[in-house]
Design brief:
Layout: H1 2-5, H2 10-13, H3 46-65
Length: 66
């Protein structure tokens, strides 16, 4: 997150909060969201990828609803 807090005027214009993707209400009042998706890598099965992708999509939708 350092790259965000190092932006010009970030100390005046940027506030960073932790939010829970499983709790859409934790995003209330947000004007923007940086969402990093799930890790993918070697050794993942198709089932793992499907479950991880489903969780990432549901979490993102929760953030958008907040």
């Amino acid at each position: 997150m350092g790259f965000l807090s190092n932006l010009e005027e970030a100390s005046k214009k940027l506030r960073i909060f932790n939010a829970d993707l499983n709790k859409p209400e934790s995003f209330k009042g947000c004007m923007g969201v940086f969402h990093w998706a799930q890790p993918m890598g070697k050794g993942c099965t198709e089932e793992d990828e499907e479950v991880d992708t489903k969780l990432a999509v549901e979490g993102l939708l929760g953030a958008l609803k907040g």
